[in-house]
Design brief:
Elements lengths: L2 H9 L1 H22 L9 H5 L2 H15 L8 H13 L4 H19 L5 H31 L8 E10 L4 E8 L13 E8 L4 E8 L9 E6 L7 H11 L6 E4 L15 E7 L4 H13 L5 E7 L8 H10 L3 E7 L9 E2 L8 H4 L4 E7 L1 H13 L7 E5 L8
Parallel strand pairs: 7-8, 7-11, 8-9, 9-10, 11-12
Antiparallel strand pairs: 1-2, 1-6, 2-5, 3-4, 3-6
Helix pairs in contact: 1-7, 2-4, 2-6, 5-7, 6-7
């Protein structure tokens, strides 16, 4: 890009800050109108709740703000690339997206969208597309080079369903072709794809792998969105109510950058809200397999014991591993239950969990993550020791 073109892109930053979601909403409407086949790739629930539009607006804004040195955005690029490869997005999709993005800038900005500005954004987008598709191709290449690895969608058999709580059920997934499966890093997720008759679409969703690597199967643990007719809940309800052992589902290979670090000597502090404990279960089980004396603090919050998944499993592990300690928070605590009342408050247990020699893993809703991330930062915990994952399109800027 020329210096002039970079300045033109940066000149749109104020507009993107104020009207970015208007632009991205118009973009998605335009793209789906002209290329309806892409509805099979994009989560229509996130379209209806505007999370995808907001996430894209934030990404476009960040790119414009850092157009002088986009390399600073690599952690974000890496995370998005993992999500894209889990959805089988390929280089040719960037051509379609670029066409509709530039057209949307022209249509939304009107007279402000000069030929020079559109050309600058076209060049900027192409550089970003080349960066993203190149990185994604490297991820695809790595996937197929691994034992049992694959790209795209692969059929898996649901061998078993296990009810973990009143809301969460685990699904044990084995490859239908009976071949080997790819290993994964604890914390990674799978994309699962089902056909939804209600929408007449194939729809993908991401679910964290909730067990340690074992070479035979993957386990996902899914929260049912009770009574939901919104696209967000259609997949979870179909899994809970329709999909039974023996059913075939499409799965993409493990992806994701929220993974267990390999510093086994450091205390691991796992902080979860609701179904956010699923990737942390895989991390904890893996650590205890590798080092039975590892120091682990398990902190979990949910409404009550009825919705508390893996309660028995974690309880058993605390009985057999002296260095594993749990702190449970319930909104409603029944008589005799060993739990704190209310939402997770790290200040209540800070003497047990705060250490400069610990790593912190947070998973849950965005507000949950922001609250506990900020608390740890305020307690002088180095941000490089704090890892987090927000389910769904990223909306956090911490």
């Amino acid at each position: 890009m020329t210096t002039t073109q970079k300045e033109l892109v940066k000149s749109t930053v104020p507009i993107l800050r104020e009207h970015g979601v208007v632009l991205t909403t118009h973009f998605y409407q335009r793209m789906f109108e002209h290329n309806p086949e892409l509805k099979h790739i994009f989560n229509q629930g996130n379209q209806q709740n505007s999370r995808q539009q907001t996430a894209l607006a934030m990404a476009v804004l960040a790119y414009a703000e850092h157009i002088e040195d986009p390399s600073v955005l690599f952690p974000v690029v890496d995370s998005i690339a993992h999500k894209h490869t889990s959805l089988a997005i390929r280089a040719e999709h960037y051509v379609i997206v670029g066409k509709h993005l530039i057209a949307s800038i022209r249509e939304v900005l009107g007279e402000l969208a000069t030929d020079e500005l559109l050309e600058a954004w076209a060049v900027a987008y192409q550089e970003l597309a080349d960066l993203m598709s190149g990185h994604e191709q490297n991820i695809y290449n790595k996937k197929v080079s691994e034992q049992g690895g694959w790209t795209g969608w692969r059929p898996f058999v649901v061998k078993d369903k296990v009810v973990e709580s009143s809301e969460i059920t685990s699904f044990y997934l084995y490859p239908a072709d009976e071949g080997p499966i790819a290993d994964f890093k604890p914390g990674q997720f799978l994309s699962l794809r089902l056909f939804l008759p209600e929408l007449n679409l194939l729809q993908p969703r991401q679910y964290s792998i909730s067990c340690a690597p074992n070479g035979e199967y993957y386990r996902i643990s899914v929260k049912r969105e009770a009574g939901s007719t919104h696209p967000d809940g259609l997949i979870s309800n179909r899994l809970h109510q329709v999909i039974q052992p023996g059913a075939i589902v499409d799965i993409s290979s493990p992806s994701g950058v929220f993974v267990l670090q390999e510093n086994l000597h450091k205390t691991k502090v796992f902080i979860s809200g609701g179904v956010g404990q699923t990737p942390l279960m895989a991390m904890m089980e893996t650590i205890l397999k590798q080092n039975e004396t590892a120091s682990i603090k398990w902190i979990h919050g949910c409404r009550d014991s009825e919705v508390h998944a893996f309660k028995q499993r974690v309880g058993e592990l605390t009985q057999t591993h002296a260095n594993l300690k749990q702190h449970i928070f319930y909104d409603v605590v029944d008589k005799g239950e060993d739990a704190y009342k209310g939402w997770v408050e790290l200040a209540q247990i800070e003497e047990d969990i705060l250490s400069q020699q610990a790593e912190y893993y947070i998973c849950g809703p965005s507000g949950f993550i922001e609250k506990h991330y900020q608390y740890l930062i305020n307690q002088k915990i180095d941000k490089t020791a704090i890892f987090f994952e927000e389910f769904g399109p990223a909306s956090l800027a911490i």
